[in-house]
Amino acid sequence: MAVIGVKVELEGAPVFAQNMRMLTQQTKLYQQQLKTIDATMAGTTNTYNRHIAKTQALKQAEQALQMQARQLANQMEEAQKAISKGDHVAKNEQALLRYRTQMQRVQQQIAETNAAIEAQGGRWGAVRAQFEAIGGKMQEVGGKVRDFGASFTRATAPISLALAGSVKSAIDFETAFTGVMKTVDESAKTSYKDLEEGIKKLSTTTASSKEEIAAVMEAAGQLGVPTDDILKFTETMIKMGDTTNVSAEEAAVALAKFTNVTGDGTANVDKLGASIVALGNNFATDERSIIEMSQRLAAAGKISGLTSTDILALAASMSSVGIEAEAGGTAMSQTLTQISKAVAEPGEKLNKLAQISGMTADQFAEKWKEKPIDALQAFLSGLGQMNEAGQDTYSVLDELGMSGIRQSNMLQSLALASKNVGKAVNISTEAYKSDNAAKKENNALSEEAAKRYQTQAAKISQTREKVKNLSIEVGNKLMPYLSRLLQAVSNFIDFLDGLSEKTKTVITVISAIVAVLGPIITFIGTVISAIGTVISAIGTVIGWISSLV
After folding, report:
1. Whole-angstrom Cα distance, residue 92 to residue 12?
2. Per-residue pLDDT at 64
3. What single string gives the DSSP state of each residue in 135-198?
4. What is the Cα–Cα distance from 178 to 273, expressed in whole angstroms?
5. Residue 509 and residue 163: Cα distance in Å, rounded?
6. Which of 150, 168, 398, 518 has the largest CB neighbor count within 10 A?
7. Average pLDDT by consecutive 10-residue portion of the chain (549 residues)?
8. What pLDDT is recorded for position 364?
């Protein structure tokens, strides 16, 4: 708005001059008052009071300008009369010209002041301005809050993800270990804490995850492996799963059953694992085939006096010549049973067995009782020599009651590679003995595992599990707070459940509480901005109403 008021300098009566000076000072005063109002109340939310004060000052200024205009109009009228009478015509014409020039200026200022008053809009305008000011401020604040929330979300996103990952790792491991606690009881020497730490440590030294190791331990507990042996048992099964064609869980089930039959106990399962791997490395067979065949031979072998290493060696020898576990296991079990019966009831069959083995009946019986695997090897070797000499071995087997197709074929196949039995027994026995912690030597299984765990894939797995171990520790710290939060949510749900049906229809979905502050702040900022927009809109509506009024 243009400057309100100009200094009016008129020639004329002293009263006119005095009045004009007074009016000019008043307009200057109102001019200063407007500046003061804008300076002191600018930026405040009390827009209503500022609006009213400014309107009042403008009206007072307009009144002073109107009085100046009336004073000038009177002087112009007096000058015009004097000119009409012919008094001092030249002087009065000059004065009239000045009055008209000053009147134009005053009228222009009156018009500008009236326009300013109209723009203020009176009390309606003040209310409108108040709403617009509050709305604008809320939009500004809301925008800042929203921007801060978005920035906060971006800044804390990695932390949030890390914490969420830690909680998930802790929950996953807790779930996996719950399976262990279902099948394994704590002992005086071994606690659940010991088992947890053992699983975590194994995950960082093998190529299996904690969840996979826990699953093997759970299976071992279900199979009756003693608590004090279970960690060692699990480690052996994991090594076999990582280095052979048998999964850790399959190995656990098979060897647990095998040791239950043979009576070796699971304390020595690492020795059995070493024997199996050594046999697999030295014969044309694999660990899965050896284990499957051993399970078929376990009962008959135990009854006949074979040791666990003997049974494993016999299984390796049989599977290496292509004998299937199902048929071969049954056939060999029949053979062992028949030989044991012949030794227990001396007669023609014992004599025939001894003759084929190159011994007397007493020698064969004694050998069978002391070292049955050697007696069996001697019998198979004798059959092999008969085959090489072109003798009729089928008739001999028929005399012994071993003429069944599966049994006969099995014995004939094994006889052709009878030397393998002795070799297998030696390898199995030595591998079993080599697994001695006091010697600080790696057995066959440990050596295979060491090679496997030096691969890049294994190292990546170990590093990943170390990171997960750290995440679990962090997650365990957060779990109590999560439990409290879940309890609070549960209590809140119970509270909602107790509300009236009418209230429940309003609350249709209860969202999960999100432990992330950024999105909440962003939402609050958006709400504030939205409210500000609504308030500003109300101010606009009030402006329309003011115009209509």
Report:
1. 10
2. 80
3. HHHHHHHHHHHHHHHHHHHHHHHHHHHHHHHHHHHHHHHHHHHHHHHHH----SS--HHHHHHH
4. 27
5. 26
6. 518
7. 42 61 70 67 60 74 81 83 81 82 84 77 58 59 60 50 56 82 91 91 88 90 89 90 90 90 85 91 92 92 92 93 88 92 90 91 92 92 88 87 88 86 90 62 76 82 75 64 64 65 54 49 61 59 54
8. 92
How far is the C-alpha of 137 from the C-alpha of 337, rounded, in Å? 98
Helices 361-370, 325-344: crossing angle, 10 deg rounding = 120
Of residues 124, 137, 122, 121, the one with CA closest to residue 46: 137
Asked whether the beta carbons of 403 and 397 are under 8 A apart, the reply is: yes
Q: Interior CA angle at 167 toward 146 and 248, to 5°?
A: 145
| Residues in the chain, total | 549
Place of tokens 């405040």: 44
Query: How many Å apart are CA 274 and CA 286, to the nearest integer?
Result: 13
CA–CA gap between residue 382 and residue 372 (Å, rounded): 15
Phi first, then psi: give them for residue 306, nearest 5 degrees.
-70, 145
The token pair that represents 203 in the structure block: 């995950």
Q: CB neighbours (10 Å) of residue 268?
A: 19
Q: What is the pLDDT of residue 136?
A: 59
Contact 26, 89 (CB under 8 A): no
- What are 225-247's pLDDT values in tens digits? 899 999 989 999 899 899 898 99
Contact call for residues 165 and 471 (beta carbons, < 8 A) = yes
Q: How far apart are CA 198 and CA 210, in angstroms?
A: 10
pLDDT for the residue 512:
41
Per DSSP, the residues of 390-427 read: T--HHHHHHHTT---HHHHHHHHHHHHTHHHHHHHHHH
18 in Cβ contact with 59 (< 8 Å):
no
Q: What is the pTM of this model?
A: 0.57
CA dihedral in degrees (255, 259, 261, 264; nearest 10)? 160
First-last CA distance in the chain: 25
pLDDT single digits (tens) 82-104: 888 887 778 888 888 888 888 88
